[in-house]
Amino acid sequence: MSDDLIQRVISCIASTQHIPAEKITIDSTFEELGIDSLDGINILFALENEFNLNIPDDAARTIRNVRQMIEGIEKLLEAGSVSSGAVA
Amino acid sequence: MAQRRVAITGLGVISALGRDRHEFWQALRQGRSGIAAIEGADRTQLRFANGAEVRNYNSLDHFPQKEADLLDRFAQFAVIPAREAIAASGLEWTPERRRRTAIVTGCCVGGQATEDAGFVDLYRDRRGRVHPLTIPRIMANAGASYLSMEFGVTGPVYTVSTACSSANHAIGQAFWMVREGIVDLALTGGSEAIFSLGFLKAWEAMRVVAPDTCRPFSRDRKGLILGEGGAMLVLEPLEAARARGAKIFGELAGFGMSSDAHHITQPSVDGPASAMRLALEDAALDAEQVGYINAHGTGTPANDPTETAAIRAVFGAHAAKLGVSSTKSMHGHALGAAGAIEAVATTLALAEGVLPPTANYLGLDPQCDLDVIPNTARERRVEYALSNSFAFGGLNAVLAFRAWN
After folding, report:
1. pLDDT in tens, B97-123
2. A38 and chain B: CB distance < 8 Å anywhere?
3. How far apart (Å, rounded) are the C-alpha atoms in residues B20 and B41?
4. Pick from B55, B98, B135, B359: CA 20 to 30 A from residue B158's CA?
5. CA-to-CA distance for B319 and B292, rounded, in angstroms?
6. Active site residues of B
7. Which residues of chain B make contact with A87, given a CB cutoff of 8 A?
8. Is B230 in a helix, a strand, or coil?
9. Distance (Å, rounded) from C-alpha B101 to C-alpha B105?
């Protein structure tokens, strides 16, 4: 899990939620950050645009904290680099 | 049980004529039009250039960033005048009052700007995805739902969509609910924000938008001018309003509605006439008691002669004594918000004893030979007034107002 990836994910969360990035750590839960289900889909949208990938609904549904989110993105990026990858 | 009388105890409006009812009324009184070159969409791609927009609007003046992101402009235009109306009413919320309050709003097309932006992403920019808040932003009840949360209102909350009659239908429903004791308070009106290119091009294709300005009932009128904004009224039983010492702006006295069952866009005489008669009947009024009509008066070649004929059919010889004006000449045609904006205009006209003019009037069209209060407001105390809204689709809704003295 690269620092660059962590920072990009945190930056997406911060800009979507209108909160300072410093308030977000890899161990923050969505509950701590006040992220509800509607906020969640906003963040997924920002991440899809940031990383140019599609996040499937079933993968998105189980994510409850920042760490899971970063791991999920990492997995999708790895899968994308093996197969034909992200859909623009 | 005798019918309850219904007082208007709160008013709010945002439109091309300003941010609140005071600015709005000053403009109407002065006959000052808010119609100007369109800024909200690329007018170089349009055959018409002018609109009645809310100028220099910054959503962050009214909402925190996250709320501004959630609410399309049309929904914001429901919330801002509702706050003004509730503040003017001096109401205090209790759990019982929240349970016994209705919110009924009118809206024709919902979040057009949001929808348009999503289609640009999808079809032009081929981005493959649209913003996840698109659905909650475009739904026509977004304003009503947000208001229920803002004020904690848990009674009936819904939105009526009948094109240009939306707000009058909404206000009429709310009025009846208060009068019949179904609820003890209602917040009602309408809002609209339609300055997005896709929607403006659709109006262009209808060939009813004026290339210059809106000149209702006038010779050389060339069509309507689109507008945006919102307006809200607080309605409550007159006795309850008096008991709590509320300021009473006026009374809502009657509501009538009808359908032309005729043509999807061409207006008829009989349908509007029927709605006016039903509003008079609902208010237990003789036609001769009415002194002012805030006309639908779109400024299109088709509406104005038809509305003139309908008014003559209902009022007979008394039509010559009526003041009839179209304030759309100043705040534009705000579609689903029109009736609400005009309800505020009518209430203030009765309260102030000043009838707002039909602005931009050039001279007589023999087919529209009513006293349309051309260009200059008129000091005249009137006890009863009607406000007309007639929609595409042939749906007519007319409200009757009474001055409170």
Report:
1. 999 999 999 999 999 999 999 999 999
2. yes
3. 24
4. B55
5. 10
6. 164, 296, 333
7. 128
8. strand
9. 13
Residues in chain A closer than 8 A to B128 (CB atoms): 54, 87-88
pTM score, two decimals?
0.94
**Are the C-beta atoms of residues B130 and B302 closer than 8 Å to each other?**
no
Beta sheet of B6-15, edge-to-edge order: B157-160, B101-106, B185-192, B229-237, B6-15, B250-259, B395-402, B384-391, B290-294, B323-325
**CB–CB of B342/B293 below 8 Å?**
no
Helix (H) or strand (E) holding B113: helix B112-119
Q: Does A87 touch chain B (CB under 8 A)?
A: yes
- The answer to whether the CB of B387 falls within 8 A of the CB of B293 is yes
The single-letter DSSP state of residue B71 is: S
* Spatial separation of the C-alpha atoms in residues A74 and A66, rounded to whole Å: 12
A78 touches B at CB < 8 Å: no
> How far apart are alpha carbons B402 and B405 in whole angstroms?
10
Q: What CA–CA distances, in Å, run from A60 to A17, A38, B181, B263?
A: 17, 12, 48, 49
In contact, A29 and A64? CB cutoff 8 Å: yes
Give DSSP secondary structure letters for B299-336: --TTHHHHHHHHHHHHHGGGGGG-EEE-THHHH-B-GG
Distance CA B26, CA A53 (A): 54
A36 touches B at CB < 8 Å:
no
- B157, β-bridge pairs: B103
- Print pLDDT tens along chain A (88 aa): 899 999 999 999 999 999 999 999 999 999 999 999 899 999 999 999 999 999 998 888 889 999 999 999 999 999 986 544 444 3
**Buried b / exposed e across B206-240, counting CB within 10 Å, b at 16+?**
eebbbeebbbbbbeebbbbbbbbbbbbbbbbbbeb
> Of B81, B93, B75, B88, which Cα lies nearest the Cα of B185?
B93
- Which residue in A17, A38, A45 is closest to B129 by CB distance? A45
Is B133's CB within 8 Å of A42's CB? Answer: yes
User: Which residues in chain A have their CB less than 8 angstroms from residue B127's CB?
Assistant: 49, 88
Whether the ipTM is more than 0.90: the answer is: no
Four-CA torsion B377, B379, B381, B387, nearest 10 degrees: 0
Question: Among partner residues B126, B129, B132, which is closest to A42 by beta-carbon distance?
Answer: B132
B64 vs A contacts (CB less than 8 Å): 18
Query: Does the beta carbon of A17 lie under 8 angstroms from any beta carbon of chain B?
Result: yes
Alpha-carbon B20 to chain mean position: 14
B392: tokens are: 């595409």
Cα–Cα distance between A30 and A17 in angstroms, integer? 11
Question: Of B60, B66, B71, which to mutate for an interface test with A (greatest number of A Cβ within 10 Å)?
Answer: B66
